[in-house]
Design a protein that fits this description.
Layout (H helix, E strand, L loop, with lengths): L1 H49 L3 H5 L2 E8 L5 E2 H15 L2 E6 L4 E4 L3 E12 L5 E12 L5 E8 L6
Parallel strand pairs: 1-7
Antiparallel strand pairs: 1-2, 3-5, 4-5, 5-6, 6-7
Bound molecules: 2-acetamido-2-deoxy-beta-D-glucopyranose.
The site of 2-acetamido-2-deoxy-beta-D-glucopyranose has 6 residues, from helix 1.
């Protein structure tokens, strides 16, 4: 009787450990896949801007998504579309590139950091260049909930 109970206990315990191990492997694969998807959103952000595809670019954002940038935030799809169209009005020749592999972590949403370089010429052909960092919060639907652009400003020598 005692040995049967022991075998049963052993059986139940091994089932539990196999199952929980499967579950945690599944979750970590899931997290890795989620991080990859979050980075793909940031890469698409750069690609759509370069293609001057404001419709696809805006669709990367949540309906109430916000882009914090100068001079003031762009809020919601309507505000974001105006921001995107404004870029090409101001800077007919514009490109945006990620200069390093984006960094990603997950904590209440996926959070991505990317280093970027913007190159452009203004309407008079004057060249402009700016480097900086973008930070993104990607929601559960893999939409951008908010993003913030930071400019590199050289320290005075
Ligand atoms: C991966 O993303 C899905 C969809 O947002 C979410 O339901 C799931 O909890 C995420 N998994 C992990 C481990 O973060």
């Amino acid at each position: 009787m005692g040995s049967k109970l022991l075998i049963l206990t052993f059986f139940v315990l091994s089932c539990i450990s196999v199952c929980s191990c499967r579950l945690s492997t599944h979750l970590s694969n899931d997290l890795a896949a989620n991080k990859t998807k979050a980075i793909e959103v940031v890469e698409a952000y750069a690609r759509h801007l370069n293609n001057h595809d404001c419709v696809s670019w805006v669709n990367l954002f949540a309906e109430d998504g916000i882009k914090y940038d100068e001079p003031e935030p762009s809020v919601g799809h309507k505000g974001l579309k105006a921001f995107c169209e404004g870029i090409y009005e101001e800077l007919p020749s514009f490109f945006y590139t990620l200069t390093e592999t984006p960094l990603v972590t997950s904590s209440k949403g996926l959070r991505v950091l990317s280093k970027w370089l913007i190159g452009a010429a203004d309407k008079n052909g004057k060249p402009l260049g700016q480097t900086g960092i973008g930070s993104y919060i990607i929601n559960n639907d893999f939409k951008i909930q908010e993003c913030t652009g930071y400019d590199d400003i050289p320290l005075p020598q």
